[in-house]
Amino acid sequence: MTWHGTDGTPRLHIVTGKGGTGKTTVAAALAAALAGEGRRVLLVETEERQGISQVLDVPPLGTEETEVATGLDGGSVWGLSIEAGAALVEYLRLFYRLGMAGDLLQKMGAIEFATTIAPGVRDVLIGGKIYESVRRTASGRSPSGRSPSARRTRDRDAPPAYDAVVLDAPPTGRVGRFLDVTGQLADLAKVGPIRNQADAIHGLLHSGTTVVHVVTLLEQLPVQETLDAVRDLGADGLRIGAIVVNQARDDTVRSTVDVIATQEPDPARLAEQLESVAIRTTPAMIDGLVQTAAEAVQRRDLELSLEEAVAGAGRPVLTLPHLPEGIGPDAVWRLASELTDQGVQP
Amino acid sequence: MSDLDLGALLEDPETSVVVCCGAGGVGKTTTAAALALHAAERGRRVVVLTIDPARRLAQALGLTELDNTPRPVVGVDLAAGGSLDAMMLDMKRTFDEVVLTHADPETAQQILDNSIYQALSSSFAGTQEYMAMERLGQLRSQADAEGTWDLIIVDTPPSRSALDFLDAPTRLGSFLDGRFIRLISAPARAGGRIGARALGVGMSVAAATIGKLLGKQFMLDVSTFVAAMDTVFGGFRARADETYALLQAPGTRFVVVAAPERDALREAGYFVQRLARDRMPLAGLVLNRVAISRARISADRARDAAEALEEAGDRHTAAVLRVHADHAEVAARHRRLIRDTTAAYPRLASVQVPLAGADIADLPALREVGRALTTP
Q1: Strand-pair category, B83-88 with B71-72
Q2: A19 and B305 in contact by Cβ < 8 A?
Q3: How many domains does chain A have?
Q4: Is residue A286 part of a domain?
Q5: Which domains does chain B have, with CATH numbers?
């Protein structure tokens, strides 16, 4: 089985997960892993959180694609923050030839109006940008470092501008609605360019080009939401890729706890053993050690049952370690190499 | 940082509303529920409004369905004369109820059927925050009128940022009062051409463009919606202001919840500053899930001893020491993070809740959290 568990060769990787599970970090690591051997990967965020720039420690992303990380073997990750208002202005410029009117519309509050109140329009606009970045071709790779959007072309035989596009998608609670672009539009737009665009996005999202990966922690609530998301998104006809267990404890900790679990700690014996290595004990200290050990076992048992639940979803599982010192560019590359070791490849 | 005495705060009869806020995933709902249980068992008549609680916590509170109605929690010790009701926020239903209460049946139906209303009431960013506030206002009126409760504890929605909660009512209000939405719905309101003529050339171009994009029916829906809402509320902004004022009323206290992680603490810092700027009464900071070392042996010393014991063939005791060493390191990291926050906000009162081994999924576990919360 492939690392993503589908038989296609996906180029659009949608990363979702419960809030707080480290979805942005995982999306960045996945982008870096896919950017090996001189490949170009676009990493996209859609909720204007500037999460990518924080994780990769680069200046805030704008609506122009910029290089945010370079691999040692020539691969590159580009970043883009899609903002619905800017996408609408661009859209109007393309389809209605409203060059200068964009600013005017912005000032009047018309852009905010159209992107916030009209159900689904915002998602179609954002989806449209993603669609375009997946479908865009490069007529040749100039090493000039110019933004790829500057050399867009409609040449069908040319290679894609990006080998992969990774989307740091909205959290599990909102992602279903976000990806259901056509359903959201409902009777708002039955015909016309918006409708056509929605249909095209729908086609892309439901094709072999797209997979949805779900990030979780080994905690009750995130696992529950992950299983719900796998079920619901699958029922919507989306292809589910891997489940990424993030911030997992490393195996040596697990095996230490396994040793503890083999027998109930005996306080008297424990005190005796500690005295034998010149540690002066107090009853409070022994109680503390016993309690800490018991909680570690409890925690391990919970994790084991959650791991089983995750495995039960029938999707490939990728596991990333907990990095206590926090997340920065180095950590992202480290996680990327973990993913590569677990079989993640373009 | 001084100690936050939540026990005294909850027992003070002057305290009538406690708002638990903070970034997502820090344990706001659990904190709200634990404070409510504690207060009820000390004689307060409490209602706790939760937003999207974890399934098992919801079960512990008897919240098996999302029905927007406070129901008594089973298993609470009522010996001190208190009571505890809990409810889960149903955002759409709260909005529907607001409409139904304030409009004549015909207008109400017109609004409920409107596609703009349906989008707004179920998905507009900020609606959940706004409706949490709305529900708080309703509970407050009910408490005042019927004397059902003397303390309301509110959980806040899992916003992407803690600040969204304070901004949402104004955002929704000012959105509906926005220049563009007012102008494109002007014809419906003025009953004819006058409104349209009042539009500048730029605005007509803008309206025409957006109209072309979104379709005639949609623009008509917008007009109808805004007009109907107008008659009902006499301006959404006034209502948003009212809700906001409730938060500043005497008797309201904010509790900011944070986990000992860099991002959550940074969020908490922003929130503390924001509350101060808006003159919102801040009680203090709850530091949730703090690892506390339970034995006074440093991580290094424990590891050295573990090595010696392994050589001597005692793997079990060595493992106990190693687990302690890992835990002690986490505890040290938490201590450092908390110390940095303390240094930044020296006058902020705080209380720590130790990290629990298992999920908080029943009343005894909640009681335990309540005890930690009220032990400065």
Answers
A1: antiparallel
A2: no
A3: 1
A4: no
A5: 6-177+235-293+337-373 (3.40.50.300)
- Rounded to whole angstroms, the Cα distance separating B107 from B233 reads 12
A76-81/A40-45 β-pairing: parallel
CATH number at residue A171: 3.40.50.300
Whether residue B316 and residue A101 make contact (CB cut-off 8 A), yes or no, is no
CA-based nearest residue in chain A for residue B291: A292
Q: How many C-beta atoms surround the C-beta of residue A266 within 10 A?
A: 14
The band of B342, judged by pLDDT with boundaries at 50, 70 and 90, is confident
* Any domain includes A76: yes
| Residues within 8 A of B (CB atoms), A 316-345 only | 324, 326
Facing B24 at nearest CB: one of A20, A256, A259: A20
B positions 230-259 inside 8 Å of A (CB): none
Cβ atoms < 10 Å from Cβ of B239: 22
pLDDT of residue A118: 67
Domain that holds residue A207: 12-250+314-341
Residue B20 region, left (φ>0) first, then alpha (ψ -120 to 50), else beta?
A: beta
The answer to whether A321 and A338 have CB atoms below 8 angstroms apart is yes
Q: Which residues of B touch A177 (CB under 8 A)?
A: 123
Ranges B61-75, B80-94, B189-203, B249-263: which has the least confidence: B189-203
